[in-house]
Automatic annotation (TrEMBL):
It comes from Mytilus galloprovincialis (Mediterranean mussel). GO terms for cellular component: extracellular region. Keywords: Glycoprotein, Heme, Iron, Metal-binding, Secreted, Signal. This is Uncharacterized protein. The keyword Metal-binding applies. Gene3D superfamilies: Haem peroxidase domain superfamily, animal type. Heme b binds at H342. PANTHER family: CHORION PEROXIDASE (PTHR11475:SF4), OXIDASE/PEROXIDASE (PTHR11475). Transmembrane segments: none annotated. Its main location: secreted. It is found in: Secreted. One of its GO terms (biological process) is response to oxidative stress. InterPro entries: Haem_peroxidase_animal, Haem_peroxidase_sf, Haem_peroxidase_sf_animal.
Length: 515
């Protein structure tokens, strides 16, 4: 559809449309980007070239994602001490917040059939039955020998696909591609309307907590069954520490807006709202690029991709804008590179006192998708969870994942035992038709791995799982790369650096720009 843009608009749109006035790229509800290769062909790897999940080079199925997870990513295979000495939870939790939440895939909701017993429906069978329609279930198969999960299938639904002009399956990003605090304000005008107090500059709150309008989000075990919190991103209650981040930014908007109202009594409410939003976005961009990203990419990659903001003491504005930079999020970043943070998650979401002592242990596996901890007694626990963000060390970025994430994801008393984030990430990459790890090394101008032995300790396991070194999934190879200081390795530095460079230089409303 033709969109008419106000070229003089002072504020960015909610859905990211009209940011780029030349090609309109970066709006919510548009396809994830595929990287063009050396010959300008999109890098895409579907088994049939158009939509079936990626297969091995020789045409066989790729190894069972859960087996890869068990053999390579089990925390028991890693060092006893996983904690990172430089990164606190304040680092990995906001990363969930800034990063993941800005790139949301549509996954059609179906009833979750966790670990159904019985016949394993193989991908082959599904392919044969449903070759025309590629929207099939793509279950995670759990083998008889699994030490942690009962044998059978765990439900996994393909991300909703649409065909592009060439008839190739593409996935849709529900969020805008910009670092624009859409996690606070939403990526659609409809959601923003739900979040705002009508005819006011404020965002809605209830008892100074996030609003809980009926019928918007679902959650598990809230204090009052209908009270699921709503924020700019639907997974706001996935874990308590994430909900606290949402709440902090939500309140920050209202704090700034109220100050602006006092200072500018003559402004219209809409002006107060938009000016406050603009300031919140500026803070959000500054923190993302100057505090968060250096702890992911390391100093060298930050400089290589020109991601640091200009030092304010230089007294000049930086204007990095380039109308030809396409900010759209790469599918490979969404399904692999940006999921590095899953390895930093720890097993607990504890309450912590002012001296950083744990006062209550909350196991992560008991609080997935539940706003209970933040809603209890009008939010009395919030400072205790908030302190945890600063007091507790993250786990390292590596190939080891805690049991709560790798065996008990989404665990709920009525649907034990749970799912496996690693297996899901691997499967999601195949679902998206994301090319194998070695192909991305090549595209990043890194030497492709020639031998399984290059993976040292894990080479043997990889060799048993994969037929060919080029079959290794991007997220698996990427997380096995070792890097000084526990940043992401060179392939993910390349992909994330490339992505954030575009999100910065492709943003007409970037906060450092003059005027
Ligand atoms: C306890 C904390 C977390 C939980 C429970 C969690 C869980 C999940 C789940 C279940 C998915 C969907 C998997 C799929 O089916 O494809 C997902 C997606 C994702 N996660 Fe996390 N995650 C957490 C923390 C993080 C962190 C710290 C980061 C990054 C720094 C991150 C980055 C992502 C990204 C980029 C996606 C893809 C987003 C999308 O397409 O919707 N997550 N996460």
């Amino acid at each position: 559809d033709d969109i008419v843009c106000d070229v003089d608009a002072k504020y960015r749109t909610i859905d990211g449309s009209c940011n780029n006035l030349k090609n309109g790229k970066g709006a919510s509800n548009t396809f994830f980007k595929r990287l063009p290769d050396e010959n300008e062909n999109n890098v895409i790897d579907y088994a049939d070239g158009i939509g079936l999940p990626r297969a091995a080079k020789n045409g066989d199925e790729l190894p069972n994602a859960r087996l890869v997870s068990q053999a390579i990513m089990d925390e028991k295979l890693g060092p006893l001490i996983q904690r990172d000495r430089t990164r606190s939870a304040q680092k990995h939790v906001p990363s969930t917040y800034v990063a993941k939440r800005s790139k949301k895939t549509i996954i059609t909701k179906v009833k979750r059939l966790e670990s159904e017993q019985g016949e394993v429906t193989t991908t082959d069978k599904l392919l044969a039955e449903d070759a025309q329609n590629r929207d099939f279930c793509f279950p995670l198969e759990i083998s008889k020998n699994d030490t942690d999960l009962p044998p059978g299938c765990i439900n996994f639904v393909r991300a909703t696909g649409k065909l592009d002009e060439e008839g190739v399956r593409q996935q849709t990003n529900l969020a805008t591609a910009f670092v624009d605090a859409s996690v606070v304000y939403g990526s659609t005008p409809e959601l923003t309307k739900i979040l705002r107090v009508s005819d006011s500059y404020l965002l809605k709150t209830e008892d100074n907590l996030l609003p809980t309008p009926a019928g918007v989000n679902s959650c598990f075990d809230p204090v009052i069954p209908t009270r699921c919190p709503v924020a700019g991103e639907s997974r706001v209650a996935e874990v308590s520490m994430l909900s606290v981040q949402h709440l902090a930014w939500h309140r920050e908007h209202n704090r700034i807006a109220s100050e602006l109202r006092t200072l500018n009594p003559h402004w219209k409410d809409e002006t107060v709202f938009q000016e406050a939003r603009k300031i919140v976005i500026a803070i959000f961009q500054h923190i993302t690029f100057n505090d968060f990203l250096p702890l992911v990419l390391g100093q060298a990659a930050m400089k290589r991709f020109k991601l640091f903001s200009r030092d304010v003491n230089e007294g000049v504005f930086s204007d990095p804008y380039d109308v030809d930079m396409n900010p759209q999020v790469l599918g490979s970043v969404n399904v692999a590179a940006h999921r590095f943070g899953h390895s930093q998650v720890t097993n607990e979401q504890n309450f912590v006192d002012e001296d950083c002592n744990t006062v209550t242990v909350n196991k992560l596996e008991d609080v997935f998708d539940s706003p209970r901890l933040i809603q209890q007694n009008c939010g009395v626990n919030i400072p205790f969870i908030g302190r945890n963000l600063g007091c507790t060390a993250s786990n390292r970025i590596d190939n080891f994942f805690v049991d709560a994430m790798r065996n008990r994801l989404y665990h709920k008393p009525e649907s034990p035992p749970g799912s496996d984030i690693v297996a899901r990430n691997i499967q999601r990459g195949r679902d998206f038709g994301v090319a194998g790890y070695n192909r991305w090394r090549e595209l990043c101008l890194l030497e492709p791995m020639k031998s399984f032995d290059s993976f040292e300790k894990f080479g043997k396991a990889l060799k048993e799982l994969y037929n060919d070194i080029d079959d290794i999934d991007l997220i698996v190879g990427g997380l096995l790369e070792k890097e000084m200081g526990f940043n992401v390795g060179p392939t993910f530095q390349c992909l994330l650096g490339f992505q954030y460079e575009r999100m910065k230089q492709g943003d007409r409303f970037w906060y450092e720009r003059p005027n």
